[in-house]
Amino acid sequence: MSADSPRWKHDGVRVIPAGSLDTNTAQTPGMNRAAAIDFARAGAQKLWAGTVSIHAGAKTGAHHHGPLESVIYVVRGKARMRWGDRLEFVAEAGPGDFIFVPPYVPHQEINALADETLECVLVRSDGQATAINLDIEPVEKPESVPWIDPVHRG
Fold first, then answer.
1. Which is higher by pLDDT, 4 or 31?
2. Dist CA 106 CA 81 (whole Å)
3. Distance from C-alpha of 130 to C-alpha of 136, rounded to nearest angstrom
4. How would you classify the pairing of strands 70-76 and 98-101?
5. pLDDT digits (tens, 9 = 90+) for 13-41
6. In the chain, domain spans
């Protein structure tokens, strides 16, 4: 038995049971966030992870996450994302799709389905939750922007 054994027992892998997520985290109107991994719960210093649910047909308030990068993985439903200074751009994602939100980008999550909850897993690049809610009036008809990366054109 090594001298490190006691440290690894308590400071090694952490399992966060599904029923123990913490809803006492930064919130934005129209969605419900729950923290699984953060500094306070697991000692994470470089990331925050949890879930987000948006009720059928609902949309969130406009917000950004300061200097943090965010990754959203769609588990169930259909996400419609708006972003820009006036939320003038739009793209959609479904189950199995990933969404990347760079730092300081004003955005709004919308559940594009009227009869199903949008369920996602969310990861951010810091151990603390940050959500800055914004007072932005969205444009009437957002511009559709296909998600294209350097490998997949058009």
1. 31
2. 11
3. 18
4. antiparallel
5. 888 998 999 888 888 777 888 999 998 88
6. 23-144
Distance from C-alpha of 31 to C-alpha of 33, rounded to nearest angstrom: 6
Summarize pLDDT for 42-81 with one digit per residue, the tens: 888 999 999 999 988 888 888 999 999 999 999 999 999 9
In this structure, is the dihedral angle defined by the CA atoms of residues 28, 23, 79 and 56, taken in order, positive or negative? negative
Strands (E), the chain: 32-37, 48-54, 63-64, 70-76, 79-83, 89-93, 98-101, 107-111, 118-124, 132-133, 143-144
User: What is d(CA 85, CA 104) in angstroms, rounded to the nearest whole number?
Assistant: 10
Q: CATH says 23-144 is which class?
A: mainly beta
